[in-house]
Amino acid sequence: MDKSLFSRLYGPRGWMVVGALAVVAFIVFPLCNLAIPKDSLFHIPDYTVALLGKIMCYAMVALAMDLIWGYTGILSLGHGVFFALGGYAMGMYLMRQIGLDGVYHMPLPDFMVFLDWKTLPWYWNFTDHFWYAMLLVVLAPGLLAFIFGFFAFRSRIKGVYFSIITQAMTFAFMLLFFRNDTGFGGNNGFTDFKRILDIPIATSGMRMTLFVLSALVLIAMLLMARWIVTSKLGRVLTAIRDAESRVMFSGYNPVRYKLFIWTLSAVMCGIAGALYVPQVGIINPSEMSPANSIEIAIWVALGGRGSLVGAILGAGIVNGAKSWLTVAFPEYWLFFLGLLFILVTLFLPNGVMGLLGGLRKKIFMRSKEAQP
């Protein structure tokens, strides 16, 4: 295997081929699974489909974190709030779809009726329209990120100080959403969803549709992120990560670049949250907990900072292990997460992708030495 082959595999054409194959695979897979009888050994149950869809949503968040941390050098410990805001925007629409006695689009969601609310809050207006909810999915995290980033980056807040204030922001929003008088369900949040676009959610067809949609969005985000990091914009972002002062002296304004990628990263998290909620069936303030945002950084660190595929791989490894450990050893999950982060820091500073990259170089060198 020569070096040119590696160049083709990791070049633009190789990525486009991988994306096309992935799209075909994620279309063929659900069609085949729906055709297989449910009592068959080869049929994948709805629970597994929903779990895979949830992990893909987490992978989108890891991808967003890698753009801002791995390529721009800005460690955010507040991406959980952007994910949750997108989820709440979708949840507001789903709650408006819940009806009583078969009648949908009631004036008040059921939890507001329980809390004896008399009128719908102004910020709930138009949330019974799908298009408006999708607009909120993008605007809510996007505007928050833009406003927050504008003042933070203009003030040249960076490093550990930026990480601290992002975590403070997440904690503040979590406390706000825990309150019953904010109109977001308080501690319980939103749950018991019934329909989306007047189609029942709890059906194999809808679960598979959400799975396919999550896969396609993840592929689109991966290709978009790949285009960004290989463009001039990506080179400027990497330069900001490595030497921001030199970038400034070269005539570039780092604030604009950081604000753009920061806002884009937040929007990606919001879209992931919107796809996450109907597949999991619940959204509550615990999604905004600081621990969740720290866990997102661990996914990227495990997979490998500055590697888009590594971020997806890290999210898959951690959440796949979490799904198994929380069932088999629920009391030891947090210890495992802490141990994993320590081991990665000590022995895998470049993550799993760094390890695979080192093995790839060794294989290439050996094959080159073996050539006559």
How would you explain this protein's 3D organization?
The structure is a single chain. By secondary structure, the chain is an all-alpha fold. It has one domain. It contains 14 helices and 4 strands. The chain has helices spanning about 5-10, 10-35, 45-70, 80-95, 110-115, 130-155, 160-180, 205-230, 230-250, 255-280, 290-305, 310-330, 335-345, 350-370, and strands spanning about 190, 195, 200, 280-285. Strands 1-4 form a two-stranded antiparallel ribbon. Helix 3 (about 45-70) packs across helix 11 (about 290-305), helix 6 runs antiparallel to helix 10 and helix 11 crosses helix 12 (about 310-330). The radius of gyration is 22 Å and the shape is globular. The two termini are about 15 Å apart. The relative contact order is 0.16. Residues about 1-10 and about 100-105 have low confidence and may be disordered.
